[in-house]
Write a structure and sequence with these properties.
The complex is a heterodimer of chains A (about 350) and B (about 260). Chain A is built from twelve helices and 15 strands. With about 350 residues, chain A is of the alpha/beta class. Chain A has two domains: about 5-180, Rossmann fold, CATH 3.40.50.970; about 245-355, Rossmann fold (3-Layer(aba) Sandwich). In chain A, the strands form three sheets. Chain A has a seven-stranded mixed beta sheet with strand order 3-2-4-5-7-6-13, with helices on both faces. With about 260 residues, chain B is an alpha/beta fold. Chain B has one domain (about 35-255): Rossmann fold (3-Layer(aba) Sandwich). In chain B, the strands form two sheets. A seven-stranded mixed beta sheet of chain B has the order 2-1-3-4-8-7-9, sandwiched between helices. Chain B has a two-stranded antiparallel ribbon with strand order 5-6. The radius of gyration of chain B is 18 Å and the shape is globular. The termini of chain B are far apart. Classes of the chains: A alpha/beta (about 350), B alpha/beta (about 260). The interface between A and B is large, with 40 and 35 residues.
């Protein structure tokens, strides 16, 4: 049975990971997610797991490659500049179809940017951030509870599809505390990882090659790419997830994820008090993105307001869903309440925009 | 397959390992790296650890001798092999023997950061760096181990230290790193060196079996194609020129790290 705990986002990430049965973490210090790394440094050795502080995020991702190739559940966590550094090895992980989980606690970018929250890695995460054209499942928690639950979903989906799964969080979500139910979630049984590297003697003399030059030797390169993209299509067809709030009768649908979705939820409450029919669509999967529901709502005559803490990244996906069927407005980083790195998009600001549209 | 050799009245001196598949060799004729890989394969069999081993091959020619072996194998990005190997070791809670086969560019240029940090952590893995003083796969460019005055496609007038930098001596460097258990440099250039190198390889694996720390062996190999030499001439060039810059021997051999 689960227990009710008052925890920070970082601890929820940690407890969700432990509840998924993952005992291996490799990471490098970077703000604003150091508490995640420190959680695992404290908790894994007690449980017989392994924690290694790598010398860089490139190395964290290389560790993840090796551990994932050995068939165990493995995780690393980072923030935006480290996310950038990981991309080379994440591309290799993707081409080798290794199941692994990466948490990216977004901070302001580009470059070193800020050490605080932002949502400026959306396109990098959802388009496959590294070389070569690949996809990762991208999950976006918007509460501490979701930090805990989506970690478990992330490991399940990674194993189910042999794919890299990214948790795209932000600096605020990881640093706030809320009451959550801590419990192990049930998922369908998964196939054995018969391909895991552990030495032929440890698997009945069978040997496996997990190498990212697989395009160089038969089966030929094109077949591999087509097979991987068939898998992506299956994920698109069956894994789209989103939350809605007062969306059924809404004339204006706000689309937000992460901490901004919480502000947007409050803005919807305020709008309703003002008699304005606003609702919220909070994508859980940023890839695959919930295009279909957007198109349905657009055809019903709904208007859309994208609110994200960037200069406009998720709005590209909203455009793809809505096509030219309805109006899409945008509220982004320019609407932060102060211009320093602490600036946030407040519910009041969102409400003002809702009033302008409705 | 060639006709079976009749062994009557003949002593079997060497037979290729049964762990190699009938797989087209990706190496050029006369490639020294293949010889080095054969030494490692032979030692794995002699120590009876080959079925409990995972090989991580780097990007480049060096690991090609391990393409097509009946072993668990991984290959990730250029230079990252020690870290990938360490990930495999941790994931399996230290059970298998894990080692890397890397070229001098993979190991000492793009992978130098991975290697040094893996060594400093004392990762319980074995790293083999096959040094042919050039980038073989890409066509003979200057490597971190190219000799002074060596002509390569990117040093057409010869490597000049003040302009192009100086050769990197990896086993000497690693001998000063605390997490390292064993560090040596061998060569495949003649039979005596071949045998001596085999001893180094055996010792390096033993350090991992004994869980001491990272073990490292550099093996001087030839690249006849990019050196523009006949295979035998290339081997002689190792003994005549390469060993002047890269002396053979053991640089560190410790049974316990304090």
């Amino acid at each position: 049975m689960g227990e009710k705990l008052f925890v920070h986002g970082y601890e929820a990430v940690g407890r969700g990971t432990l509840n998924a049965g993952c005992l291996h973490f490799f990471g490098y210090p970077i703000t604003p997610q150091n508490e995640i790394t420190e959680f695992f440094a404290n908790e894994l050795p007690k449980r017989g797991g392994r924690f290694v502080q790598a010398e860089s995020e490139s190395a964290s991702a290389a560790f993840v490659f090796g551990a994932a190739a050995s068939g165990i559940r493995v995780i690393t966590s980072t923030a935006s500049p480290g996310w950038g550094l990981m991309q080379e090895n994440l591309s290799h992980i993707s081409f080798c179809e290794l199941p692994a989980v990466v948490v990216n606690v977004q901070r302001g970018g580009p470059g070193q940017g800020t050490t605080r929250h932002a949502q400026t890695d959306y396109l990098s995460a959802t388009r496959g951030g590294g070389q070569g054209g690949y996809k990762s499942i991208v999950l976006a928690p918007s509460s501490v509870q979701e930090c805990h639950d989506l970690m478990q979903l992330a490991f399940y989906l990674a194993d189910k599809y042999r794919i890299l799964t990214v948790i795209l969080a932000d600096g605020i979500l990881i640093q706030i505390a809320e009451y959550i139910d801590v419990k192990t979630l049930d998922y369908d049984p998964l196939p054995e990882k018969e391909w895991a590297l552990k030495g032929a003697a440890n698997k009945g003399g069978k040997y496996d090659w997990i190498h990212s030059t697989r395009g160089l030797i038969p089966p030929i390169y094109k077949d591999i790419i087509l097979q991987i993209h068939d898998k992506y299509q299956k994920i698109i067809d069956s894994e789209v997830r989103y939350n809605t709030y007062k969306m059924d009768d809404a004339e204006l649908i706000i689309i937000s994820y992460g901490y901004v979705a919480r502000c947007a939820e409050e803005a919807v409450n305020m709008a309703r008090e003002n008699g304005l029919k606003a609702g919220l669509l909070q994508p859980i999967t940023l890839w695959p993105f919930p295009y279909k529901i957007l198109k349905e709502k657009a055809l019903q005559g709904c208007k859309f307001l994208v609110v994200e803490d960037s200069m406009g990244q998720m709005i590209e996906d909203v455009w793809l869903g809505v096509e030219d069927k309805s109006r899409v407005s945008f509220l982004g980083m320019e609407s932060r309440h102060v211009s320093g790195e602490l600036g946030m998009i407040f519910p009041e600001t969102i409400l003002e925009e809702v009033k302008k549209i409705l | 397959m060639s006709e079976e050799i009749k062994l009557e009245n003949k002593k079997l001196v060497y037979a290729p390992t049964s762990y190699r598949l009938e797989f087209p060799s990706p190496a050029c004729p006369g490639c020294g790296s293949m010889v080095a890989c054969n030494i490692i394969l032979d030692v794995l069999e002699e120590l009876k650890i080959i079925d409990n081993s995972v090989v991580v091959i780097g990007v480049g020619c060096a690991g090609m001798g391990f393409f097509g072996t009946k072993m668990d194998m991984a290959m990730c990005s250029h230079g990252s092999s020690p870290t990938v190997a360490s990930g495999i070791k941790h994931a399996n809670f230290d059970a298998p023997i894990v080692f890397t086969i890397q070229g001098d560019g993979d190991c000492a240029a793009i992978g130098a950061g991975y290697l040094v940090n893996s060594a400093a952590r004392g990762d319980k893995i074995t790293v083999f760096m096959l040094n042919n003083t050039t980038y073989g796969t890409t066509g003979g460019q200057m490597a971190p181990t190219s000799l002074p005055n060596q002509v390569t496609t990117t040093t057409p007038e010869g490597r000049k230290g003040s302009v192009h930098g100086y050769p990197l001596h990896v086993p000497e460097m690693l001998a000063s790193v605390k997490g390292v258990a064993y560090s040596a440099r061998g060569s495949i250039s003649n039979y005596a060196n071949y045998k001596r190198t085999k001893k180094y390889v055996k010792k390096a694996f033993q350090k991992q079996i004994d869980n001491v720390g990272l073990s490292f062996v550099e093996i001087l190999t030839s690249c006849p194609v990019n050196w523009h030499m006949e295979p035998v001439e290339a081997l002689k060039w190792i003994d005549k020129e390469v060993v002047k810059e890269f002396p053979l021997g053991e640089y560190l051999d410790t049974d316990a790290i304090e």
